Structure formats: C-alpha cells, structure tokens
Amino acid sequence: RSSLSPLHKINAVINSYAIARQREIETLQKNAEFRREFIADISHELKTPIFATQGYIHTLLDGAMDDKAVRMKFLKRAAKSLDSLDVLVQDLLTLNQMESGVIKFNFSDFDLKELILEVMEQLEHKASKRKVAIHFDFDQEKNHTTHADRQKIFRVCQNLIFNAVKYNHEGGDVKIHLKVQKNSLLVEVKDNGPGIPPEDLKRIFERFYRVEKSRSKKEGGTGLGLAIAKHILEGHKSKINVASTLGKGSVFSFSLPLEKEKKTSEKEAPTAQ
Ligand code: ADP
C-alpha cells in the first residue's frame, strides 16, 4: 500500500523517534524546574518560623531569662513558632504524597451532613473569637450519604470553612449549604468577607500562593490548604469551584457522589445504644 521508499520509511521512523526524545527532554526539564522552584519555596517558608524561634531563644539567652513574665512570653512565642513549623512540615508531606500519587484513598459510605457538623463544632471556638457566625443549611428529610475518603473530605471542609472564618471581617457570616442533587451532593461555603481579586482567583490553588501574605501568616496559614484540597478532590474525580466578588465575599463549592441505596434503610434503622 505504501509508496514510500525504504529510505523515506527510515527517515520517518528517525523523525518520530527524535520528536519523542525531544518531548521526553522537555518533560525532564520541566520536572527539574518544578523541583527547583518547590525547594526554593519550601526553604523560604521554613525560614520564617525557624528565624522567629531562633530570635526568641537568643533573646532569652541574652538575659530575658531572668524575668519570669518575659521568660514565659518568649517561651510561648517560641512554642507557637515551632507549632506552625510542625503544621507546615505536615502539610508539605501531605502535598508531596499527593503530587507524587503515592497517597492512598480509603473510600467508605458516610453522612456528609454529620461530617460538616463535626467540622463546625471544631471551628466554633475560632469563629466565636472572630465574632463570625456559621450557619448550616440542609434538608433534614433528605439522605446525605456519600462514598468518599472521610478523613480527607474532613480536611477539605475544615480548610474551606476555616478560610471563610479567618479571611472574613470581624462579625461576618459564613453560610454552608448542603444541596442534594440528582446524583450528587453539593457543598457550598459562602462568606461575606473581602473577596478575592480576579487576578489572584486563578492562582489561589497553587502551593504557597497567598492573596494577603500578612493576614494568612498571622492566622497560622501555610498557603498549602487549597492546593491540598484541590488534590483531594481530584482523587475523588471532583474539583473545587470558586466565585468571588471584591468587597462582597467568596463562595467555594465542590460535589461528591450521592449514595442513593442507603436512603430508606438508614432513615428507619433503630438507633444503636
Ligand atoms: P492559607 O493557609 O494561607 O489559608 P490556602 O491555600 O487555604 O492557604 O488559601 C490560599 C489563599 O487564598 C489565602 O492565603 C487567602 O489569601 C486566599 N483565600 C482563601 N480563602 C479565602 C476566602 N474565603 N476569602 C478571602 N481569601 C481567601
């Protein structure tokens, strides 16, 4: 069928081999660049809590030890810096595992409404400190069972709800909606905080990207939460959506599959003692 001469055929094979090799080289170069950037970012982020801890300890050694009140103040600050270092390292490990695809997902059936209530309970103290009210809207009559990795989805909800609290104005509101759709459950976390500028909106899922550096660091943010959340949802073949209006607030949302079979049996099951 082919009218190509043997020489042409050899040429075509060599060409396609060269193109494939070129692509491989480009991928390797991109990976190397990615690694370099990642290491630069990490070093930069690690420096902050390390420098802070060093500063407090050296101040203590230089004489602040003698006064009990001052000693306690600096020790508490050093402990806080070390705690944030610990959170950062944990987040980095998680993100690294996610990006290299080695992390395992443990899927099970669970009630998404219950999970959200648990997250709210955990964040209650932080919200009341900022005078932020968290409202949760769901239909009591409906089934909210999903099939997902509970621990990881907990992490996603924790991140979205905590962000809605910590980036909100004092006295602001956070509204969580859990909507039952045909085959899925939609979670929406809405705040009436400052909103996110359009040019930042497309970058907030990048590791270490922060809109307001000072605010995020003050609140103990690592700039990794949304990057981790995005990976977790990708592992569920889902994604996070965000819409934001400057001065009005932001809405983050995602959906998970609805497990329909459990509906009646669960509703009527006697409560175990
Ligand atoms: P961080 O640990 O800094 O909170 P995230 O990855 O969770 O990191 O968020 C990235 C950045 O996106 C934050 O530093 C903040 O600037 C911005 N952001 C996230 N959620 C909100 C929100 N609800 N309102 C305003 N800005 C937000």
From TrEMBL:
The keyword Cell wall biogenesis/degradation does not apply. The keyword Oxidoreductase does not apply. It catalyses: ATP + protein L-histidine = ADP + protein N-phospho-L-histidine. Its EC number is 2.7.13.3. One of its GO terms (cellular component) is plasma membrane. GO terms for biological process: cellular response to phosphate starvation. One of its GO terms (molecular function) is phosphoprotein phosphatase activity. Residues 41-260 form the Histidine kinase domain. Keywords: Kinase, Membrane, Phosphoprotein, Transferase, Transmembrane, Transmembrane helix, Two-component regulatory system. This is histidine kinase. It comes from Algoriphagus sanaruensis. The lineage of its organism: Bacteria, Pseudomonadati, Bacteroidota, Cytophagia, Cytophagales. The chain holds residues 88 to 360 of 362 of the full protein.
